[in-house]
């Protein structure tokens, strides 16, 4: 179980065009209270006695301030069990990182994920400050400060209608910058009225072509240090390996999001289920995870994939990310990226056969 904590709720210093949060007020100084934080950490440590995993998220989690993060460490030291491993990750836009933050992350072994959509012109297309200025320079500076302090961050790039046609430029930019731990998630923002993806979202086959091109470039580079989450997941699924990111698991219930008031919701990425509230952290995780509403959510995730069960790629794909499902009024919701992802599964499978990693 990985606990995703939205410590400042949806507050953020940026206003990216594809962020579904910016429909609401993102500037309201919300912060998880000390009491809620302590309960969250105690519950996380009690529930996963071998390895407790926390992702510190927002909005922009660095808005919580360094003192808040020092409290995280204090409570984790208080509730850590004998021999228990605690993993901390933070997902940030990187613009607020300074020497103090970098030193803190390094000395407390935080995994740092930065949102960066490619080189400056592509990143700045949609990732902007509220006054419409691009955020690339500040994010890039944050990455350099991390590097100087011995941290090489992972990168989450959001693939959208602007950068999807530049796979080679994207790949070369990241690899030339020695950023080799990469995730290429598709943007998904839906029109309020039609419920369908807006023009910012990449077309399904464009996204499929993008991932396939990235796969070919990765293969050609032949550098074992390059790790691309989508490609690693698909390759592992095809050859019977263990690694799968959540998008290929159909287990969204295992990624609960804890709001700054302690309310627990289904995965934050799962926009269409954002109203499903499982309860509050004060009720205890054991109580929440055995509740009927939680079990019903798990069944709902499975029901959403009913039309996938006949698909030849189901064992690899498991229906993809719940957030990507949408429908025209009367239809059952379907995974918007299905068509493109089928091309990805076919292409990677053909390549593994060509190299005799999979039987013909
Ligand atoms: S490729 Fe499409 S139909 Fe097949 S499992 Fe994935 S989402 Fe479902
Ligand atoms: S909704 Fe998407 S991002 Fe969230 S757990 Fe499910 S697959 Fe992962």
UniProtKB/TrEMBL annotation:
Which protein are we looking at? Radical SAM core domain-containing protein
What the entry lists under NCBIfam families is as follows: rSAM_more_4Fe4S (TIGR04085)
Instruction: Extract the InterPro entries matched here.
Output: 4Fe4S-binding_SPASM_dom (IPR023885), Aldolase_TIM (IPR013785), rSAM (IPR007197), rSAM_sf (IPR058240), Sulphatase_maturase_rSAM (IPR023867)
Q: List required co-factors.
A: [4Fe-4S] cluster
Q: What family classification does the UniProt entry report for this protein?
A: Belongs to the radical SAM superfamily. Anaerobic sulfatase-maturating enzyme family.
The keyword Signal appears for this protein:
no
Decide whether keyword Metal-binding is in the record: yes
Organism domain of life: Bacteria
Organism from which the protein derives: Candidatus Portnoybacteria bacterium CG_4_9_14_3_um_filter_43_11
MF terms from GO for this chain are: iron-sulfur cluster binding; metal ion binding; oxidoreductase activity
Fetch the SUPFAM superfamilies from UniProt: Radical SAM enzymes
**Pfam families membership:** Radical_SAM (PF04055)
- Domain (Radical SAM core) spans 1-220
Q: Which UniProt keywords apply?
A: Iron, Iron-sulfur, Metal-binding, S-adenosyl-L-methionine
């Amino acid at each position: 179980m990985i606990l995703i904590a939205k410590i400042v709720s949806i507050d953020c210093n940026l206003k990216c065009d594809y962020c579904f949060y910016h429909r609401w007020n993102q500037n309201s100084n919300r912060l998880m209270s000390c009491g809620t934080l302590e309960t969250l950490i105690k519950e996380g440590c009690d529930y996963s006695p071998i390895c407790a995993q926390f992702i510190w998220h927002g909005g922009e989690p660095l808005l919580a301030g360094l003192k808040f993060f020092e409290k995280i460490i204090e409570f984790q030291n208080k509730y850590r069990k004998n021999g228990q491993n605690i993993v901390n990750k933070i997902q940030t836009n990187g613009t607020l990182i300074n020497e103090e933050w970098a030193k803190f992350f390094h000395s407390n072994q935080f995994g740092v994920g930065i949102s960066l959509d490619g080189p400056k012109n592509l990143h700045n297309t949609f990732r902007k400050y509220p006054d419409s200025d691009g955020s690339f320079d500040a994010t890039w500076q944050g990455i350099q400060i991390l590097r100087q302090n011995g941290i090489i961050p992972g990168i989450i790039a959001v693939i959208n209608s602007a950068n999807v046609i530049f796979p080679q430029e994207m790949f070369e930019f990241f690899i030339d910058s020695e950023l080799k731990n990469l995730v290429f998630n598709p943007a998904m923002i839906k029109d309020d009225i039609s419920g369908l993806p807006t023009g910012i979202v990449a077309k399904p086959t464009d996204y499929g072509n993008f991932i396939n091109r990235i796969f070919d470039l990765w293969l050609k580079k032949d550098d074992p240090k390059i790790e691309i989450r989508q490609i690693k997941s698909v390759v592992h699924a095809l050859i019977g390996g263990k690694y799968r990111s959540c998008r290929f698991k159909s287990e969204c219930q295992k990624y609960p999001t804890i709001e700054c008031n302690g309310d627990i919701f289904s995965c934050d990425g799962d926009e269409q289920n954002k109203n499903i509230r499982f309860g509050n952290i004060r009720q205890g995780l054991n109580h929440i995870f055995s509740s009927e509403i939680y079990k019903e959510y798990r069944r709902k995730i499975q029901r959403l994939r009913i039309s996938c069960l006949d698909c030849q790629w189901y064992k690899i794909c498991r229906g993809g990310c719940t957030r990507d499902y949408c429908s025209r009024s009367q239809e059952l919701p379907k995974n918007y990226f299905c068509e493109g992802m089928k091309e990805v599964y076919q292409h990677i499978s053909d390549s593994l056969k060509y190299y005799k990693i999979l039987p013909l």
